[in-house]
Amino acid sequence: MPHSTTDSPITIHPITPPQGSTYTFGAELRNANLENLTEADKKTIIDALYTHQVILFKNQQSLTPKAQYEVTQLFDPLATGYGHGKTLDAKRSILHPDLKTIPSQPQVQVIGNGPVASYEGLENITLKHPHHRTFHKDVISDEDDRDNTRFYRWHIDAALYDLEPPKATSLLAVKVPKTAPMKVRYDDGSGDELMVSRGSTAFVSSYTMYDLLSEEDKEFARTTKVQYAPHPYIWMSPCKSRSNGLGLHSSNLELPTTSLPPISPSKIKTLPMCWRNPYTGALALQIHPSAVQKLILADGTVIDDLGKVREIVYRLQRPGIAPTLVWGVDWEEGDFVVFNNRGVLHTVTGSFLEDEVRVFRQCNMAASEGVLGPE
Ligand SMILES: [Fe+2]
Questions:
Q1: What is the pTM for the complete model shown?
Q2: Does position 86 have pLDDT exceeding 80, yes or no?
Q3: Are 157 and 76 spatial neighbours (Cβ–Cβ below 8 Å)?
Q4: Where does the TauD/TfdA-like domain lie (predicted)?
Q5: How many angstroms is it from 341 CA to the middle of ligand 1?
């Protein structure tokens, strides 16, 4: 039921999943003036994010980059720098081509597809929507490619080296080409598939992902730590993804340490496998499946056989991306989404023709503090 916190006009309307879907996250927030929030509004929005994980504000076409930054920063007022910091300066990072920084607000990036003559101080830029053919081991045939797609890469927005994972990410849909929907094919032997709008951003709840585990696996997840590769997006750059976007194939393609930028051991991230929601106390199974390098078990045993590490993580995570559990956002221009980056996984889907122009703004900040573990 819609409700608002005392003194704020903002009302909260949980998303109703389409028939057949069973996900239990997502909410639309109405009556918010994001350029001018009161303290009561801010409290309502923060509560809503940690209760519903993904919150949507409609009709935010005129939201300034500064206001986007300020709303995103509500969840971590001490955080000021972009979530990947300067780590994307390295030209070899797999994330580098996807982002253009807004000069007046460097925590806000422009992403999308096609040629853009001028936008927020950026002139004559060409955006490129990530296509699974650049990342997946096997790909959908050219003739099927217009109507079929994949989850590009399930992930957390995080540098996972040196910097702390952002608490929240925001996405503003500035320009959205509306065309026929697409079928997401898992192509992992399950026969699973899901209809989404073209260019949908797909989300799953990592709390649900945890809840689906057996008691034995929950115990394992609560007591195991994940060590991420140093400079993970450069390290994994030669690797290819599973067809459902949930982690990488293991073919010994990862770059050796000697081919990476200098490594400070103190900057390597070892994080809990389960991250606690600061409001509800719920545990999320929160692992970036492509960046994982080692698992450290409760008794101190280190699993460093990468193939084995990935198999374990995949087995734990795969049930959580079942088609019924995925919210594929059907973007409309002016949609502004903020998500709990420590409680959901998300991925790009879809493909666009070269001249189909799509413009989005993304914002997140490296957090001012580490993640909450299960203890
Ligand atoms: Fe992302």
A1: 0.96
A2: no
A3: no
A4: 18-363
A5: 9
pLDDT at 1: 47
Interatomic CA distance for residues 337 and 101, integer angstroms = 19
Residues in the chain: 375
Distance 362 CA to ligand 1 centre (A): 8
Instruction: State in Å: Cα 3 to ligand 1 middle.
Output: 30
Domains and CATH numbers, the chain: 1-375 (3.60.130.10)
Query: Could you tell me the distance, in angstroms and rounded to a whole number, from the CA of residue 300 to the centre of ligand 1?
Result: 32
Ligand 1 center to residue 156 CA distance, Å? Answer: 6
User: Mean of the pLDDT values across residues 217-237?
Assistant: 97
